[in-house]
Amino acid sequence: MEAKPGMIVRSAAGRDKGKFMVIVSAEGDFVYIADGKERKLSAPKKKRLKHVRLTNTVIDTDSLTDKGLRAAIRKFIGEAEE
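RE: above sequence
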């Protein structure tokens, strides 16, 4: 599976291990991810692709705000638990 902007991922390494985030952009072996709380859309975290686990869920990131990003992640987590 290829990493695409808007894809929800789970961090597999680092201090944010286990948290769900959204890919803002991808460059080679790196992705830039944000969660809207600790990592805002304006300052995403650079992370190696091997340190994230991809999901099949992709959200629309056009005109997305940090608040909207947090809501989308909460909705994804709620659906995953059901």
